[in-house]
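Researcher: I'd like a structural prediction for the single chain below. Treat it as a standalone chain; there are no partners to consider.
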Amino acid sequence: MTELTDKIYYADKNILEIIESEFELVDQKNWYRLYRNITDNSFWRLDEWDKYQEQFFVRLESTDNWTEYDDQNLRIELLKKNRGTTDHKCTWKDCDKNALTEMAICEFHAYTEMGLRK
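Model: Treating it as a single chain, here is the predicted structure.
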């Protein structure tokens, strides 16, 4: 059993293997799949695979309206965690956040304005 302690993950090879062995598919609709962890009964949403998009695996707080769950803030934080930050300020007008590593902008602007996901 592998314990997933974060609320969101990139659906890389390791995560997909964990899903295969430790989760059961409950439902699928609107470009998402709903999974239940067979050990702790938690529910998770996986984006359908698309060659032009990153896949995310997100722990849900509830199965109510599970396809509508807004995970944008989690995705932005995962981007920040994955890229890291610098001591330099974001160059976006009126932004005081630190820029991502090897970038001139913060995670919020990288995600919302530039479409960066990883």
